[in-house]
């Protein structure tokens, strides 16, 4: 019988899941197979749980640097009539900084290995895909040592525990996390009329200190309401004022907890009520921004924003309006309950269209390749390096908007060539241990095209056949 498109089983395994394994049996009831994963998801896999404490690492480094600066000041006091010299780092401080950077990079790479391991071993590949989706939606970019240190902990502690919970709870966990607070400079934000700002002005009237709007702006633009949803610059500024005081423990001279924990600093908080999107928030301290976040999480604009991104991820670069509308209604009606939203997605016809709808990103393609080759252990493959070579370094999108979710960003000829080269390197050691003619129909059940079947049938060697399968249109798309 000629193949006419993707079968429901192939769609469940590849479009909703992370790619089939040769040992997988094609699901006989694809929708039930997907929803059944809600009970099998491992929130805290062993490799993630084993990651070192990033907060303790950062705190120890800060304390070490402070001790060195203090020792340097005591050893070389300034003469009374000499102007203050610009502080320079000692050789010990520079060496400690390099050691810290190396430790952070090791932790970053270990976290990526843990993420990969979870994707290879999971019994809930659809839910694991949703972890990756939300991690990109609420992205941080690990472009400095401190954010890099917290990158793995961010996904483990702020995303994974809430992927089957409520959007509002995930939102709060994300905005409380040190990775986000450091990445978007929230720890530098000071209320213009706060106690800290008044004291600083008395000490040094000429030095400007004040509000940082980065976190507030990105929450409204990217995490919740979406661009052009009706908010103004005044709303952004007011929300940034409400957020003042949200910080991370053990920042600066005060020892108020672990550097991996959220800390609220009342002295930095802008006093008084805030008016945002026409509503007055009279709460005091930390509760003020929490109340705003709760309203953002329930706003109709947020429902549409989330629905659009979810529809784009599963139903094509141009998300079908009826699907967007259905998802938005589900999101609002169920108060951001994410399993209910996923069920609406699974029950909708658009994501089950038999034609391939999405071009796989480098991460999606690599995971599906490794799963397709039957790997359950990442072994010696260093995924941080592989993803950098393929153009999508993990947790480093370089922008708070995250990685693009459209084909044009990933389907350039040079990017495809890098995938071909990686596939060839990966299959070379396998020799004739895997037969592409056998596993191809298992990876895309009842859906392998005649062209791909012919290509792998004509290949010069088993390795060539396998590489051809992995870079075929059937495998590059989902």
TrEMBL record:
<dbReference type="InterPro" id="IPR014917">
    <property type="entry name" value="DUF1800"/>
</dbReference>
<feature type="region of interest" description="Disordered">
    <location>
        <begin position="250"/>
        <end position="270"/>
    </location>
</feature>
<dbReference type="Pfam" id="PF08811">
    <property type="entry name" value="DUF1800"/>
</dbReference>
<protein>
    <submittedName>
        <fullName>DUF1800 domain-containing protein</fullName>
    </submittedName>
</protein>
